[in-house]
């Protein structure tokens, strides 16, 4: 069974930074599209950022210029550097791995809380 493990969440003041990490247990990490999603209380899960196997990136409008997604294929790890955090960034952040329409796995989530 493929497993994804997130880390790096926590409590931070508005304007601060956090770096999330997600490591996946698979030998085919290099061909996967990796993504970060978040879910705030009372809201649906939403895309934050994605990075393809060719390192093409895609960001939600509300994080452009503040967040950066990257990957290290040698470590089977994807990162999300979050700067200039706002209280509305608060939520559970989930790591996602995908390949086509039939291969899709999620991590357990890590809590990010941004205080005013």
Which helices and strands appear, and what pairs or packs with what?
Elements: E1 4-7, E2 10-13, E3 18-24, E4 33-39, E5 46-51, E6 57-59, E7 67-72, E8 77-82, E9 91-99, E10 103-106, E11 110-115
Parallel strand pairs: 2-11
Antiparallel strand pairs: 1-3, 3-8, 4-5, 4-9, 5-6, 7-8, 9-10, 9-11
What does this structure look like?
The structure is a single chain. Helix content is 0%, strand content 53%. Strands 2, 4, 5, 6, 9, 10 and 11 form a 7-stranded mixed sheet that branches. It has a 4-stranded antiparallel sheet with strand order 1-3-8-7, with no helix packed on it. It contains no helices and 11 strands. The chain is mainly β and 116 residues long. The mean pLDDT is 96.
What is the averaged pLDDT score? 96
Class from secondary-structure proportions: mainly beta
List how many beta strands DSSP finds.
11
Secondary-structure element string: EEEEEEEEEEE
Mass-distribution shape: globular
Report the β-strand fraction as a percent range: over 45%
Radius of gyration: 13 Å
Instruction: Specify the helix fraction band.
Output: under 10%
Low-confidence stretches: none
Number of alpha- plus pi-helical segments: 0
Give the distance, in angstroms, between the N- and C-terminal Cα atoms.
40 Å
Q: Main attributes?
A:
116 residues, globular, seven-stranded mixed sheet, single chain, four-stranded antiparallel sheet, mainly beta
